[in-house]
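Weekend entry, working from home. Most of the wet-lab plans are on hold until the incubator is repaired, so I used the time to fold the two sequences that have been sitting in the queue since the last round of cloning. Logging both here for the record. First:
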Amino acid sequence: MSLPVEAQDELEQIITSIVDRYKAKPTALIMALQDIQKYYHYLPIEALKLIAKKMNLPVAQLFGVATFFKAFSLTPKGKHHMCVCTGTACHVRQAGVIVDNLSRSLGINPGETTPDGEISFETVNCIGACALGPVITVDDEYHGHMTVAKLNKVLDDLRGKKTAEEMVEEVQ
């Protein structure tokens, strides 16, 4: 699959900017990949090939890094990314209920993205905030002691919807 010419030009500019920022140092590969993913919400294959060329690295090395770290994705993610911790501390505090509710509310399973491209969610083995369990992250922001009611509020906020309580507060 090849990008249209306009997208290729944009990609070239973005990659050049990122590579220049890190002076094409191979030790900056992970940071460069993070920047690309932040911009595109995933690592496009064309971007990996281009950055490999500009940093004078084998494409296989970039694929190795991109597939080794769970933080990277080779498939498009949503504009907003949610992670639900299912580690032991969160599991015993009903993280499964949060996962089930999120799946139902979004109409997708963990590891998928909503059809409108707005929200992706996944489960992770541990977020490292066990005292806050069950915990989720939304665009790298932590939300602890998660309940179904709190989750529904988070989803409403992401979707730009106001809760009934917020509408009442605005009127007063």
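Second, folded right after the first finished:
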Amino acid sequence: MAEIDDQTKIALARDYFRLVDAGDPALLDLFTEDAQIYFPKFGLAKGKAKIAELAAGLGKEIREAKHDTSDYLFLPLGRHLAVEGTTTGVTTGGVQWAAGESPAGRFCNMFEFRDAKICRVHVYLDPDYGGQDEARFHWGRDDRQW
């Protein structure tokens, strides 16, 4: 099992975000058969079928999403790559979000690679893209920088 270089890991992560945004089924080709994924409110799962299930569920909530990787922070270490970034998008209900302008849109992903494929990705974010979870804005929305 040869370790892939940092630039290849970053290129694979950029491809991941591009294919996620496009809703392209080729996304699954980036993963090993036994890949592990974690996403808030979805939980921990293994395999390409579960990754497809997650994508289908997100499609019910998100009409459009955009990852502009040009200003992302990529931190490679060994077989891993941490990525901190932002998104913009629109929910299926028509609510827009944009990191820096709304509560949703900031995230961190932790990737692990094996044989030049993603074998693990854990996504850390608040999946309340539409800002509907009003009860948990304990500090209010006024005078906040997003």
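Plan for Monday: verify the second prediction. The chain has one domain: 6-127.
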